[in-house]
């Protein structure tokens, strides 16, 4: 079991901003995951990887792929209080789900 | 309502590592929070701030302060698969809770 969180590299997020957006995505997708999968993932230490996306269109393509694979996922938009324009897409979380199901969506991406 | 996540600056975490540890802390403290506070926080957009701690001792002091204030919190140790030695303390999440309660614990820290 793992969760992949994909964040944009093209909008100049600072380290703290990036971390907050990744956390937001992680929790949002987790809440859309069924209780059994949640428990399995937590029992295995909440394995997470943070990956790079080149821009908004790649985030949407990955979200669509997750939807078609039936993997829980969440696209995050920034509230726009700091740094970014309100509504800017920043990150996507995929899973938690079985490693191979997550990899079918994000397995080709580079580590952040 | 907000959640503060405090991460160490002294262990050379890369951006992706930092984001994963912050996400882990965020979810762990959230799970220790009562359902009413969870709902309030999510209704307000899951407000999060990511803050700096100078080292392990500061993380433990802040965790102790959160404990005494009765604010939900979670200290995260890295599983040690990459970058860090297994068991290294990386981050602390405080809240979600009312802003003033979180600020009594972390209000003096700098943004990451």
Your description of this structure?
- The structure is a homodimer of 112-residue chains.
- With 112 residues, chain A is an alpha+beta fold.
- Chain A has a single domain (2-106), classed as Bit1 (3-Layer(aba) Sandwich), CATH 3.40.1490.10.
- In chain A, 43% of the residues lie in helices and 24% in strands.
- Chain A is built from four helices and four strands; from the N terminus they run βααβαββα.
- Chain A has a four-stranded mixed beta sheet, with helices on both faces.
- In chain A, helix 3 (56-69) packs antiparallel against helix 4 (99-106).
- Chain A is globular.
- The interface between A and B is medium-sized, with 26 and 26 residues.
- Chains A, B: It is an enzyme of class 3 (hydrolase).
- Chains A, B: Keywords: Hydrolase.
Offer a concise description of the structure.
Two copies of one chain form a homodimer. In chain A, 43% of the residues lie in helices and 24% in strands. Chain A is of the alpha+beta class and 112 residues long.
């Amino acid at each position: 079991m793992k969760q992949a969180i994909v964040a944009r590299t093209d909008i100049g997020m600072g380290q703290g901003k990036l971390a907050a957006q990744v956390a937001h995505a992680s929790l949002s997708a987790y809440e859309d995951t069924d209780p059994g999968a949640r428990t399995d993932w937590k029992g295995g230490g909440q394995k997470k990887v943070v990956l790079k996306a080149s821009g908004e269109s790649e985030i949407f393509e990955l979200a669509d792929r997750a939807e078609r694979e039936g993997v829980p996922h969440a696209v995050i938009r920034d509230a726009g209080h700091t740094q970014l324009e309100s509504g800017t897409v920043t990150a996507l979380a995929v899973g938690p789900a079985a490693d191979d199901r997550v990899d079918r969506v994000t397995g080709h991406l580079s580590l952040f």
